[in-house]
Amino acid sequence: MTDHWPGSTPSQTVGPYLHLGLLWPDGPDVVPPGTPGEIWLRGQIFDGAGAPVVDALVESWQADPDGRFDHPDDPRGAVRPTVAGFRGFGRSATDATGAYAIRTVKPGPLPGPDGVTEAPHLDLSVFARGLLHRLVTRLYFPDEPAANATDPVLAGLDPARRPTLVARPAPDGFRFDIHLQGEHETVFFAV
């Protein structure tokens, strides 16, 4: 009898189990309710045919309003946020209409490579049934036109695709729809 190592095992999709293991009660709250300056980031996730994706999850990771991370990977050193209760991380499942919502505060600009400043943004990951790997994108703010114009990531994209990364104003924050495929497909990054 010979042992044969099969190599890597096949990837599996998130499946129908994300609601069992990836959610927690304060998941969508990057900041506690009532935090001064809180905003809501709301949107829907759509598949290639334009139908809402009702079994997805959106994760957010962001700097605090001062553009800092309380994380050892921040090259400037981890710094406690000045906003009480700020976690820098949120997680929201989509509902029956494909909608998600994350309560947060607007992040500050970040130092980028080669001394260039990155515009305020959130990094977002999308998990859903049928995806073998998470999809990673960014959300930029429409009220930061000067910073967005010089952001190195946005500048590196086809100008026609940049709008897929810029949220729209909404009454209590911003709206950012994510299109997994199709004519309005959101820009995703290989990370």
UniProtKB/TrEMBL annotation:
Organism superkingdom: Bacteria
Keywords per UniProt: Dioxygenase, Oxidoreductase
Molecular function via GO: ferric iron binding; protocatechuate 3,4-dioxygenase activity
CDD domains listed in its UniProt record: 3_4-PCD_alpha
Pfam families per record: Dioxygenase_C
SUPFAM superfamilies in the cross-refs: Aromatic compound dioxygenase
Domain Intradiol ring-cleavage dioxygenases positions: 38-168
NCBIfam families recorded: protocat_alph
Family indicated by similarity: Belongs to the intradiol ring-cleavage dioxygenase family.
Protein's recorded name: Protocatechuate 3,4-dioxygenase alpha subunit
Protein source organism: Micromonospora pisi
Source lineage: Bacteria, Bacillati, Actinomycetota, Actinomycetes, Micromonosporales
